[in-house]
Predict the structure.
Amino acid sequence: MFPEELVKWIVKFYSYIGDIILDPFAGSSTVGRVCQQHNRYFFLMDINEKYFKYSKSGLSKSNLLSNNPPKFYNYNQLKKLIEDI
């Protein structure tokens, strides 16, 4: 687990409100939670389905930049979404 205080410092120092943060190794979604708290959008990825489900349940309960709830895609859904573009 990535220390939340460290993530908070990195997010606030290297981004602005409304920026998009990419975390290709989402794990327990620490980056997503910090981004929600500090008004940043986020794109989380993880190869492990267990972490995908954990992120989905934990982050769905939070408010993201007012009226924009997080969207969740597993690998196959994201692949199809990209192919359709």
The first strand starts at residue 20 and ends at 23.
